[in-house]
Design goal:
29 strands, M/V/L/I-tRNA-synth_anticd-bd, 30 helices, four-stranded mixed sheet, globular, EC 6.1.1.9, alpha/beta, cytoplasm, protein biosynthesis
């Protein structure tokens, strides 16, 4: 017997353990079924479940469970990413708590500590994925620093190096001065910071009293200036192009160059060029062959090593002793000192308050410094060509298609990929250096030594590169390295390429594109056929979730409070193609009511003797009510299947919701109540069998999205053993002879009852008061149906009797139109009609007033231009709601005549 309520917390962990222990999630390489493969975007081993994880994992699990029921041999490949900088940060913080550092431990001992941490704490995210119900094949779990994956990384690095697609170069990178390493763009978070724009006068060389004013947010880097740039068409400065200025602090002469980078409308129209400390300046420096001087070290402190020889004693300029005194100062302290010295010398013209975007490291929060360093690079442009062609040819399809444009824009303007990181945790670069700096890239030190001996003619001492690889390098190999590559394994042959990748748009370039580049280069085929790009999870007002706003949502708390099924259903219900999700606890609470509705409906079925009937054939059903619900179930099956095929998760959830709540619960079960509670009849027995078939269909339909409650009901009702539902067949539509007539009749019945209910609700008729209904201009068919279903109509619409009206409509009646007939409800003796008219008129006046206020707001150009987008959108949505209320009130007044 089903309990009164479904206890998610008591059920989920136990049921999941059963699924996993019995191997329900496992792929079967020996199966003759067609494989279907999804690769999990490997979460960081340091991670905890956040709403982004909950979104993408729910969508992937829905697809994999659906395809499993379609009879496919499903592989959902699990695993975690070693997350170089994030993991190193965690362990370094632990060491700080022990009053020690990684440097004091040394590299080998530090790495031992990281592996120890990984063994003890690195499985938190995978436990949380289990709580969500994710049916990953855990027997195949991988880690991006497993031996097998490490072997793949070395193979790729060595191969690309020998093909001259990996090389060393000196370029500008995002530099984290805390970790003292290069980082990727994805690890950089731009934050709005209030600061200043300093206007500084640079004297023109060999011209008494002549100067040019530059505006800068970074006076501390002027020690590394190698030019001043002006726009070539800026009339103010045309005569100065080709001449020189004297750097106020050092006396170094630097040229004035013409470059379109300088914006005549911004600041003074003249900008200082510091190629070693700004990405735009770096490009200007390359165009004009400027020196690139580094004046901030790896910790973002001043270093004078590259400008020491340029310090000159020049009258009116800073004393070289002042400049030398900046050595070792932080960039912040150096800025203060330099601004003060410029003001003293008379070169500071103006300080203008200014707000700009300042890059910060996502991990640790340090202000990121553009830094010129020698790093390892991958020739991404060469590798990008086949990936671009694959999308152009349709070998890979993006859903929605507009993301292909984003992909093309990034890939056609792709820059060399910096693949080295100055960390200890990660795949160490397989490169060794000889005494003279010669580089030897090999699979191991023995390979490198053999190369070195061939090069030098003798054995020499080699030193391995200290750097590790960018974590995106190893994750780019994920679709084939996890399947055993570089070995030619049966799994690789069977499960590559994969079918679909589900991910967010923010890593199209960082992960999606790089997997495509590596897959095409090494596997000669794309890593996936379809890329489904979902939106971001935002709060209920449409704002991006962030710690600073305090509007973040912890999915673990939602799982505790509402259960996994409600969370999963909410995610799917809100995931439309090409749009972000407005998500909040209230929405999850609303969908938990759907879980409860299903449970209560199942209890009703159980209490009324509904149970599976062996050999039941829905196509033989005679009852109009049975034929109707089978037709509706088949319609829901078709809609759900089509939605999943098109990655329309919202439409899949909507099709299930409408059928279960509106058709099955609100109508079918209500219509069957008299039959189930009365004497046993052939019709009642048939409808019990129909109900069992429909309930089983519902459980199959909902299994991909609500696995826990459906599996529980499946087992309790005797449809099959616990855990077997996920392997049951996906339902298919059924054709029932005579269904059209049954559907027409039951649809008429539900519309008849709905119209009466609407009128009674609008007129405030108390539920306890029954009202008669008169049929005016009704056809014989309508009259026959009304007679046949009068008891049902009376019970469900609170109708005392149904009659035919041949004359005029009685005074004090409300009316509704149903097909050719008019439904007349004489209400004069039941309610005060004048009072109802007055009430409705008052509400209508109020509604129209609210509409006018909202329309005025939306007609205000300033509100549209300056208002927050989410507030403007909320206002538009409110207007639609208000207009709907107004139209409802007008219709209610019209019913009263």
């Amino acid at each position: 017997m089903l309990s009164k309520t479904f206890q998610a917390t008591d059920t989920e962990a136990q049921l999941y353990e059963t699924w996993e222990t019995e191997g329900r999630f496992a792929a079967d390489p020996n199966s003759k079924a067609t494989p279907f493969t999804i690769m999990i975007p490997p979460p960081n081993v340091t991670g905890t479940l956040h709403m982004g994880h909950a979104l993408t994992m729910t969508l992937q699990d829905t697809l994999i469970r659906w395809q499993r029921m379609q009879g496919r041999d499903t592989l959902w490949q699990p695993g975690t990413d070693h997350a170089g900088i994030a993991t190193q940060l965690v362990v370094e913080r632990q060491l700080a708590g022990e009053n020690t550092t990684r440097q004091e431990l040394g590299r080998e001992e530090f790495l031992n500590r990281v592996w120890k941490w990984k063994g003890e704490s690195g499985s938190g995210i995978t436990r949380q994925l289990r709580r969500l119900g994710s049916s990953l094949d855990w027997s195949r779990e991988r880690f991006t620093m497993d031996d097998g994956l490490s072997k793949a990384v070395k193979e790729v690095f060595v191969t690309l190096y020998r093909e001259k697609l990996i090389y060393r170069d000196r370029r500008l990178v995002n530099w984290d001065p805390h970790f003292r390493t290069a980082i990727s763009d994805l690890e950089v978070e731009n934050k709005e910071v209030r600061g200043n724009l300093w206007h500084i006068r640079y004297p023109v060389a060999d011209s008494e009293g002549e100067s040019i004013v530059v505006a800068t947010t970074r006076p501390e880097t002027m020690l590394g200036d190698t030019a001043v740039a002006v726009h070539p068409e800026d009339e103010r400065y045309k005569a100065l192009v080709g001449r020189f200025v004297v750097l106020p602090l050092t006396g170094r002469r630097i040229p004035i160059v013409a470059d379109t980078y300088s914006d005549p409308e911004k600041g003074t129209g003249a900008v200082k060029i510091t190629p070693a400390h700004d990405f735009n300046d770096f490009e200007v420096g390359k165009r004009h062959d400027l020196p690139m001087l580094t004046v901030l070290d790896e910790g973002a402190a001043v270093t004078l090593a590259e400008i020491e020889d340029d310090l000159h004693t020049v009258e009116g300029l800073a004393d070289p002793a002042f400049v030398r005194g900046l050595e070792g100062k932080s960039r912040e302290d150096a800025r203060k000192a330099i601004v003060a010295e410029l003001e003293t010398l008379g070169y500071l013209v103006e300080i203008e308050p200014h707000t700009n975007q300042v890059p910060h490291a996502e991990r640790g929060g340090a202000v990121v410094e553009p830094r010129l360093t020698t790093q390892w690079y991958c020739d991404a442009a060469t590798l990008a060509g086949p990936a671009i062609e694959a999308v152009e040819k349709g070998d890979v399809t993006f859903v929605p298609r507009q993301w292909e444009n984003t992909f093309f824009a990034w890939m056609r303007d792709i820059q060399p990929w910096c693949i080295s990181r100055q960390l200890w945790w990660g795949h160490r670069i397989p490169a060794w250096y000889g005494p003279d700096g010669a580089v030897f890239v090999g699979y191991d030190d023995a390979d490198a030594k053999q190369q070195a001996k061939a090069h030098y003619g003798e054995d020499v001492e080699l030193t391995q590169d200290e750097d590790v690889l960018d974590t995106w390098f190893s994750s780019a190999l994920w679709p084939f390295s996890t399947l055993g590559w570089p070995d030619k394994t049966p799994d690789l042959a069977r499960y590559y390429p994969t079918d679909v990748l589900v991910t967010g748009f923010d890593i199209i370039f960082f992960w999606v594109a790089r997997m495509m580049m590596m897959g095409l280069h090494f596997m000669k085929d794309v890593p996936f056929r379809t890329v489904f790009i979902h939106g971001l999870v935002r709060d209920e007002r449409g704002q991006k979730m962030s710690k600073s706003k305090g509007n973040g949502i912890d999915p673990l708390e939602l799982l505790d409070q509402y259960g996994a099924d409600a969370v999963r259903f909410t995610i799917c219900a809100l995931t439309g193609v090409g749009r972000d999700l407005k998500f909040g606890p209230k929405r999850v609470e609303d969908h938990r009511a759907f879980v409860t509705k299903l449970w209560n409906a199942s209890r009703f079925c159980e209490m009324n003797g509904v149970k599976p009937v062996e050999g039941f054939d829905p196509s033989t059903v005679q009852s109009p009510l049975g034929r109707w619900i089978i037709f509706e179930a088949s319609k829901a099956i078709s809609e759900a299947t089509s939605a999943l095929e098109a990655y329309r998760f919202d439409e899949y959830a909507g099709a299930c919701y409408r059928f279960v709540w509106n058709r099955f619960c609100d109508w079918y079960l209500e219509l069957t109540k008299p039959l189930f509670s009365g004497d046993t009849t052939p019709e009642a027995d048939e409808l019990r069998a129909v109900t069992a078939w429909v309930l089983e269909t519902i459980l199959r339909l909902l299994q991909p999205i609500m696995p826990f409650v459906t599996d529980t009901l499946w087992h309790e009702f005797g449809y099959g053993p616990r855990g077997e539902l996920m392997g049951a067949k996906w339902p298919v539509p059924v054709t029932v002879p005579g269904a059209e007539a049954a559907v027409e009749e039951i649809d008429w019945l539900t519309r008849f009852i709905s119209e009466i209910r609407t009128v009674r609700s609008e007129m405030n008729v108390p539920p306890s008061r029954l009202s008669p209904v008169l049929l005016k201009d009704a056809s014989a068919t309508t009259q026959d149906r009304a007679t046949r279903w009068k008891e049902t109509i009376g019970r469900m619409a609170r109708v005392s009797e149904i009659g035919v009206l041949d004359g005029d409509v009685p005074k004090g009646s409300a009316q509704a139109v149903l097909d050719e007939a008019t439904l007349v409800l004489p209400l004069a003796d039941i309610i005060d009609l004048d009072a109802e008219r007055a009430r409705l008129a008052k509400e209508l006046t109020k509604a129209e007033g609210e509409i006018q206020k909202t329309e005025r707001k939306l007609g205000n150009a300033d509100f549209i231009a300056r208002g927050k987008p989410e507030v403007v959108e909320e206002t538009r949505e409110r207007l639609v709601t208000q207009q709907g209320d107004r139209d409802r009130l007008k219709a209610a007044l019209a019913r009263l005549g």
